[in-house]
Amino acid sequence: MGRLVALDIGRKRTGIAATDIMKIVPGGLGYLPTHQIPEWLVKYCSEEEVEKVIIGEPKQANYQDSESVKYINPVINRIKKLLPDLEIVRYDERYTSVMAQRAMIDAGLKQHKRREKGLVDEISAVIILRDYMEYIDNMSFRL
């Protein structure tokens, strides 16, 4: 049993979020240039017990893969090569950037802070993780 880690992979930056060890609360861990994510994840997994990684899967409104998938797949393939035993789950991330912007406005962040794209990516990763956790909780109630 370990943490859940979520990644909002973008062309340039990737937002990172993780749960506490009990998998109760998701929180942001920041963001990194996307090309650094596989090696960062190897280091993180050596320091923390990680159960699985949830990767935001960008879809269009019609459920087709978005253009961004071509940037995400190479990162996933690299992670799989470096950490072959790590479970990777792809999870629909539609509208997370919009929700992240809304959360920043609701939190009262000033406009210059809301323009920080890395912060939007980090909050998006938290939203992906939170939504995934809610989905899993709802599925367990149905069983």
UniProtKB/TrEMBL annotation:
Q: Where in the cell is it found?
A: Cytoplasm
User: Does the entry feature the keyword Hydrolase, yes or no?
Assistant: yes
Name one molecular function that GO assigns to this entry: nuclease activity
One of the protein's GO biological processes: rRNA 5'-end processing
* UniProt EC number: 3.1.-.-
SUPFAM superfamilies documented for this protein: Ribonuclease H-like
SMART domains attached here? YqgFc
InterPro entries named among the record's database cross-references: RNaseH-like_sf, YqgF, YqgF/RNaseH-like_dom, YqgF/RNaseH-like_dom_sf
Task: Kindly list the GO CC terms recorded for this protein.
Answer: cytosol
Q: Does the keyword Hydrolase apply?
A: yes
Outline the extent of the YqgF/RNase H-like domain. 2-100
Record key words, sorted: Cytoplasm, Hydrolase, Nuclease, Ribosome biogenesis
Record-stated family: Belongs to the YqgF HJR family.
What this chain does, per the entry, is described as:
Could be a nuclease involved in processing of the 5'-end of pre-16S rRNA.
What name goes with this protein? Putative pre-16S rRNA nuclease
